[in-house]
Amino acid sequence: MKAIIIKMIFVVFATSLMAQNPSITDITVNQRTDGSVLLDVYFKLSGPGSSYNIALQASFDGGASYVPIPPAYLSGDLSGISPGSNKHIVWDGMGSFPDTYNTQVKLKIIASVSGGGGNGQPCPGTPTVTDIDGNVYNTVLIGDQCWMKENLNTGTRINGSSNQTNNGTIEKYCYDNLESNCDTYGGLYQWNEMMGYSTTPGAQGICPTGWHIPSDAEWTVLTTYVRSQPEYLCNSNTSYIAKALAATTSWNSYSGICTVGNILSANNATFFTALPGGILDIDWSFNNQSIGGYWWSSSPRNASYAWNQNMNYNDAWVSRSYSNKSGGLSVRCLKDN
Q: Would you say 129 and 208 are in contact if contact means Cβ atoms under 8 Å apart?
C-alpha cells in the first residue's frame, strides 16, 4: 500500500509516506468552478499487480487525523484499476462533508490490491433477502461474506416487560414498545428466541432459509477483514474501524477524532450500515438508542451469557463482549457459504 498526501489550496503538492508498492505519483487536483464543489483528482498508478482498488481519506486538521471518504461521494477509477497514467477520481467534497469541507483539506490517496471485498456492492445473485413475514432486506458483500445490510425485524412485538418464549411464534421487542422503532432499527431479541432454541453456533435461528446467525468467529472474520483494508481505517489505525461500519444517520454526535459520532457523513465506507438500536436490559429497561448498537453472535460463552459485537457513538472501535442471554439485542443474518 502506498499513500500520498495532497493539500488542496489550489497549489497542489505531494509527499510520499512510504516506499512500498503499489505507488501513486503525478497527482493533480482541480476544484471545479461550476458551483458543484466537485474535485477532479488525477494520478499515475504503478505496481507489480494487474488490478488495484483506490480509496481516499480526508483531513481537516492539517493532517493530524484522516477519515475515510464514503464511496457514495466518489466516482471514477476506484476498483479493479490497472496501472497507468491519467487515472481519474471525482470527489463531491461538499456533499460528503457539508459542515467541515474547505479548501485547506488534505487528501490521502490509498491503493490496495484488488480482489474480492465487494466495495459495498450487493451480494452477487442475492441483492435482497426476504424473511418469513415478507420483510425485504438489502444485502452487502464485505470480503467473502454476504451480510444483511439491515437489522432483522421479524416476529410479533411483545412488551419489554415479558420474556420471549418457545411457543412456536417468533417474538420481538421494539425499543420503548414502539413498532416504529422496529421499522427503523429492527427488533431486539433474547438469545434463545433468536437461536430458535438451538445452542449450536451458526444455527439458522430466526434468519431466513439459507441464512444463519453469525458465530463469534464469523464476526471476527468481518472485523479482521475491515482492519486489513487501508481504505476502511480512520487515521490509518487498525483498531479504528467503527466509522467504516456505522451508518451515517441516527448516531449521537461526538467531537472525538475517529469516533462514530464525529462527522457522521464520513461513516459507512463498507455499507454495512450499523445503526444504534440500543438494548433491552435484564431489568426490562430500554437503554442506549442513538448511543450504541449491540449484535448477538450465535456463540454461547456459558449457560447464561453469549458473545456479541457492539459499537458506541463516542468510540472508534468495534468491541467484542458478552451479554446475559435474557437481554434484548439486535440481529444481523449472514448468508450460508
A: yes
